[in-house]
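Open question from group meeting: does this chain pack into something compact, or does most of it stay loose? Before anyone orders reagents, we agreed to write out a predicted structure and look at it together. Recording both the input and the output here so the notebook holds the full record.
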Amino acid sequence: MRYVSTRSTDESTSSFTDVLLAGLAKDGGLFVPVSWPFLFDMNDCHSYQDVAMKVMFPFTSKDIPEADFRKIINDTYTTKTFIDPDITPLRPIGNDVYLLELFHGPTLAFKDVALQFLGRMFDYVLEKSGQKITIVGATSGDTGSAAIEACKGRKNISITILHPQGRTSDIQRRQMTSVIADNVHNIAVEGTFDDCQNLVKQAFADTQLREQKNLSAINSINWARIMAQIVYYIEAARQLKATPAFAVPTGNFGNIYAGWVARQMGADIGPLIIGSNRNDVLTRYFESGAMKLSGVEPSFSPSMDIQISSNFERFLYDCLGRDTPRLLKKMGDMKNSGAYEVGSDALESSRRHFIARRCSDEQTLETIRRVYSECGVIIDPHTAVGVHALHTSGVEHQGPCVALACAHPAKFPDVVEKAIGVRPGLPPQLADLMDRPEKYTVMENDFVKLRDHLLNA
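C-alpha cells returned:
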C-alpha cells in the first residue's frame, strides 16, 4: 500500500508512516491510497477491535508489525477510554432507524474514535524513530478537544489548536482550554473556522517552518484519521446484517468520506446522506455542480459552520478520474475566485454516491423535539441535522437507516434546552468542567503571529 497526493504531477508515492507524520502533502494536496484494499470475509470478526484490525491494517504498508498494530488497537478501544463496551453502539429510534452513538469517548464527540487511535500511533512511530513533531490544527469545536486529549503529556509532541473566538460552545471551548499541559497550546483566532483552517494551511505551505518544526496534522486532512473512521461504518453494517443507509451531519466532509471509502472497499453500505446546516456549501454543490463559497453564518450546530470542506478534494480527485491537472484547475479557480464548477460527468458521479439535504435552525429544534417526544432520546443539534436529512431524503423505510450521533447532547445544553425544556447534564467525568481554570491566547487572524508562536512553542 502506497499513497499519492491529490495534487502530485509526478509518480512519486509515500509510505503510511510518511503520510501519518506529514498529514498534508508538501504540494498542498491530500494523501490517498494508490488503490483501495478489498475487504474479505468478515465472519471471523467478533468485536469492534477485530473489525478495526481487519479494516485498518491493509492501509499501513506493513510499516508496523501486525502484532504491534493489534496492540495499539487493543490499547485504544477499551472501556478505560470508551465508556460503552461496544465502542460505537447502535440505538433504535424508530422502525428500522438507528442512532450510531459515536460520543462515548473522553471528550463526548465522534472525533475521539479516530484521535485516541491516532495519538497512540504517533507515540509508537515517534518513539521508534526518535523524532519529535509539532501538531497544528484548526477546529470548529470538537476536533480540538479530542486532539488535545489524545496528545496531552506526550513527550515527543507539541500541539497547537486554533479555534474561532466566540464561535464554539462554552463546553467545547473549555474542553480544550482547561487542559493545562506544557505541550498543549490553545489559540482563539479573531475570525471564523475557515480563517483558522487557512492559517493552518499557510503554516504547512511555509517550507522553512514546516521542516524546522516538523509540522504534522491531526485533523481530518490526516489520512490515518479517515482510516479509523471507516471502521464504525463497517461495524454498524456488520451488526445489522443488512445494507444500511447512513445519514451524516458534515461540514468538512471527512466523516462521510470515510463511509464512501468503506463502500470502495466492498462494504455492504447503502445511500450516504449529507446533512448540512445553514452553511450549506455541500448541499449547494450536489444541487448545482458548483462549489461556491459564501459567508459563514453562526448556527445551532457550530461544528458545521464551515464553507471550505477540505476533505471534498479527496472525493473530487476520484470523481475526476484522478486527473491531477483537471483537479489543479478546480483548486486554482477556488483560490482565485472562491468557486469552481464541475462538468456533468463529475456531478453525475457525485450524485450516484450521495444525497444532500439542508436543515435550518428551526428544523434542528423541531427534530430534537420530535425524537425526544417519540423515543425519549435526547440528541444534540448536529445529530439532529443528520436525522432531519434522513427524514427528508426519501430513503427512510426502504431498509435499515443509521443516523450518526456525533456528539453528546450535554455539549450543547442551551440549544437542547431551547428545543425540549430539558437541560442535559454532563457525565460524571466532566461534571466540574465549568469550574476548571482555562489557559489560551487570543490572536488576530495573522499568519506572522501564528508563525512566531509555532517557532517558539
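Observations to bring back to the group:
Residues 37 and 265 are 6 Å apart (CA to CA).
The first strand starts at residue 3 and ends at 5.
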